Amino acid sequence: GAGVSQSPSNKVTEKGKDVELRCDPISGHTALYWYRQSLGQGLEFLIYFQGNSAPDKSGLPSDRFSAERTGGSVSTLTIQRTQQEDSAVYLCASSFLAGGRGMDTQYFGPGTRLTVL
Amino acid sequence: GNSVTQMEGPVTLSEEAFLTINCTYTATGYPSLFWYVQYPGEGLQLLLKATKADDKGSNKGFEATYRKETTSFHLEKGSVQVSDSAVYFCALIGGGSNYKLTFGKGTLLTVNP
After folding, report:
1. What radius of gyration, in Å, describes the C-alpha atoms of chain B?
2. Relative to the CA of A12, which of A21, A32, A86, A88 has its CA 20 to 30 Å away?
3. How many CA atoms does the CB half-sphere of A108 hold within 13 Å?
4. How many CA atoms are closer than 13 Å to the CA of B57, on its beta-carbon side?
C-alpha cells in the first residue's frame, strides 16, 4: 500500500460501549505507533510496537485501553467502556525501524475521529 | 523529560510574506527534529527533518536548521502561498526515548490572498 491506512475514518458511539480502531501500516515497516490528538492535550503518544511486541505501553491512559498487533502488520486499538473524555482523533504511524537515524521517520495515517456521546 | 515549545498562533499572513515559526526543545543527547504539517481535513504529513546539529531540512520551499547551541529548529519560508494554510507541528525523537515523538502544541497558519 502507498501509505498508512486507518479504519473507520469516523466512529460515533455511546458512552459505555467498546470500540475497535484498525491500522494498516506501510508494507515492510516493523515499527508501529498509536497517538491521540485532542483539543485539550494536543498530540499524545499511546503505545509503540516493534514487530508484534509492545515494549512501551506507557502512554495508554487507563486499563480500558489496549492494543495488539498481529503478523507484524495490522494493529487494533481497543477502548472498552468508552467515556466522553475518550473523544479524540486516534492516529496511527509506522516506520521502517525505530531508533535508527534516517530510518525512524514516522509516517502517519489519516486518523480515526472518535466521538463518544 | 523531552519537551517542545513552539510559538502560539494563530499566525495570519498575506500571500508572498516571509514566514517564521519558532520552535525550541528540551532533550538530553542529540534528538532528531521534525516539522509535520496538517492541512485542513487531512492527516499529519512529514514536512522536513534534521538528524544532527547544523543539518538543514528543506521541502516545498520550507527550511529549518538544527541549532544545538540554541536548542532551536525554527521553520522558515521566504514567500508563503494560500495553499500553505495549515497547522504546523514541531517534534522530536530522542533524549532517552528513541521512538516516541514529542510534539509541540501546533501553530495554525492562515495565508490570505
Report:
1. 13
2. A32
3. 23
4. 22
